[in-house]
Amino acid sequence: MQVPRLYTNAVFAGYRRGQRNIYPNVAILHIDGVNMKEDTEFYIGKRCAYIYKVAVKKGSKKPAVRAIYGTVVAAHGCAGAVRARFAHNLPPKAIGENVKVFLYPSKI
């Protein structure tokens, strides 16, 4: 029996932007295997997380891994990208990094 998949990977492509303005509160994600706008409808409303490692002081019991959680809110363009809003804006160093898009909550 296979273990059920709980998430799929996405790449943080950058912030939503116009010609002159950048909106860092909205992230653009490219989800693996999603190439059309119609395919993005399944992911709208799903939770996502950017997971990163932090430096830990010696003797500290805190975990060395943290996460910023967000939600997929809309499709972006016709090539299968989506927009996501995170609890805290993603840092610029996260551009090009992996983001996990969870397959829940389910709308089915």
Structural topology:
Elements: E1 7-17, E2 22-31, E3 47-53, E4 65-76, E5 81-86, E6 98-102
Antiparallel strand pairs: 1-2, 1-6, 2-5, 3-4, 3-6, 4-5
What keywords describe this structure?
single chain, mainly beta, 6 strands, globular
If you had to describe this structure to a student in words, what would you say it looks like?
- With 108 residues, the protein is mainly β.
- It has a single domain (7-102), classed as Thrombin, subunit H, CATH 2.40.10.190.
- It is 0% helix and 47% strand.
- The chain has strands at residues 7-17, 22-31, 47-53, 65-76, 81-86, 98-102.
- The chain has a six-stranded antiparallel barrel with strand order 1-2-5-4-3-6.
- Strand 1 (7-17) and strand 2 (22-31) form a beta hairpin.
- The two termini are 23 Å apart.
- The mean pLDDT is 94.
β-strand number? 6
Q: Report how far the terminal alpha carbons are from each other.
A: 23 Å
- Coarse morphology: globular
CATH architecture type: Beta Barrel
- As for the CATH topology, it is Thrombin, subunit H
CA radius of gyration: 15 Å
Outline the low-pLDDT stretches: none
Given the structure, what is the number of helices? 0
CATH superfamily: translation elongation factor selb, chain A, domain 4
What CATH first level would be assigned?
A: Mainly Beta
Order of helices and strands: EEEEEE
What is the domain tally? 1
| Average pLDDT level | 94
How many strands, which pairing sense, and closed or not: the largest β-sheet? Answer: 6 strands, antiparallel, barrel
Organism: Entamoeba invadens IP1
Protein name: 60S ribosomal protein L35A, putative
Family: Belongs to the eukaryotic ribosomal protein eL33 family.
Keywords: Ribonucleoprotein, Ribosomal protein
